[in-house]
Amino acid sequence: MSQRRALQASSSAVVDAKRASKQQQLQLERQKLDPHSVILSPQHFKNNLGVAYFLRIYMTIVAGSAVGILGVEGWGGFAVYLISQLLCTVPILVKCGGNYKQFFPSWDKVYLEHIFSSTAILSYILFWMIFYNVCHVF
C-alpha cells in the first residue's frame, strides 16, 4: 500500500513538473518580441540619453580644443560647434544599428538633445578660448 502511494506521489510530482514547464514555455512565448513591437524601459532610455550626453560633451571638448589650436575666430567656430554636434549622431546611430526607436523615445532625442545645452556650449567656448590663448596669444 505504501509503495502504491509513493508511486502515485512521484507520478503526480512528474505531472506537476511537466505542467510547470509547459506554463513556463507559454510565458516565454508570450514574452517573445514581435519585430514590429518594442517594449520600452524608462531606465534604459535614461541611461541611453546619459551616454549620448557624455558623447556630446566629449565631442564639444575635442572640437573646442581643435578649433582653438587651429586659430579659428568668430562665427566659424560656432559653425564648427554645430557641425560637430550633428556629427555626434553618426556614432549613436551606428551603435543603435540604425534603429533608434529601440533605444530612444523619439528621433529628436537622438539628433537634437543637448545640442544647445548651456553645459555643452560653455564647455566648447572654454576649451576653444583656452587652446586659442595657449597657442596664439601666449
UniProtKB/TrEMBL annotation:
Belongs to the EMC6 family. The chain crosses the membrane at residues 53-72, 78-98, 110-131. The keyword Transmembrane helix applies. Its main location: endoplasmic reticulum. This is ER membrane protein complex subunit 6. It is a multi-pass membrane protein. It comes from Tetradesmus obliquus (Green alga). It is found in: Endoplasmic reticulum membrane. It comes from the Eukaryota. Keywords: Endoplasmic reticulum, Membrane, Transmembrane, Transmembrane helix.
